[in-house]
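Human:
Class, as today's exercise, you are to examine the entry below, and be ready to discuss the fold:
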Amino acid sequence: MLSILNARLLSRLSIAVARQPVLLARASRLPTLVARRSFITSIPLAFPAVRAPAKSTAGRKTATTAKKPAAKKKPATGKKAAPKKKPATKKVATKKKAATKKKAAKPKRRVTAKKPVVKKSTRVTKAQAPPPRGPSPFILFSNEYGKNHKDVSIVERAKLSGAAWRALSEEEKQPYVTLSAARSTVAQEERTRYFASVDPDLLRRLNKQRIASKKNRIPVPRILRKPPSSFFLYLSEIRDPSLSAVENAKSAGAAWKALPESEKEVYRERCLELTKEHKLKLEERAKHLPKSA
């Protein structure tokens, strides 16, 4: 019995030695039970495994994607699921494209410069002012003297002309006096015509300008002056020449407040009569004014 077993063992060992390279290459794939055997049992034969054909990468990808289990659906609740929104980037891109198309389609507007608004000036010009008075004899002499001394400055010319005027005798001054009187007469006639046709409002504005420039007021003709009020009529009656204007105004104001209404009414009626007369005079004056005034 033992001899038969030994013969079988030797035959199998010879076969194993012949196939040693193959067994060593596939030793890692042998089952763990091969290393443990008894002499009673027979040695199981192990043959090299047949290689499977290599699969393509595309097939592997599809296989892996197919093997993924489907996502579990959440149980439906009372609220409806909101519809999926499209990505905002696409909308922004489409909107921007549409906006650029619209902007390109609009024609360019021509920007016209606005004309500056010219404000009407209420300032009285020199042409609207009253004509000047006639020149004095000294002014006529200094003008003549300056024509012969143009190489001198204005200040020196004024000093020299003043000294020369004082050195003249009365007979030498007489021609300038006569010429001054003649020109003053013509200038006075022009001023009379001016004040006869001038607008009272223009004179008021002109006097405001002159006061602002620290110049003297232009005297307004009596025909253009407004009549005094009831208080000033009362003041003219009780005015004390020994007192100043301020003192007279204070005393008249206190007396006017203490005056009974019946006496005040007399002065008010007189003021109304003077106002009516002044209005009639202005209307009569306006009839004779030129159309350009």
User: Anything to note?
Assistant: Residues 126-221 form a domain with the DNA Binding (I), subunit A fold (CATH 1.10.30.10).
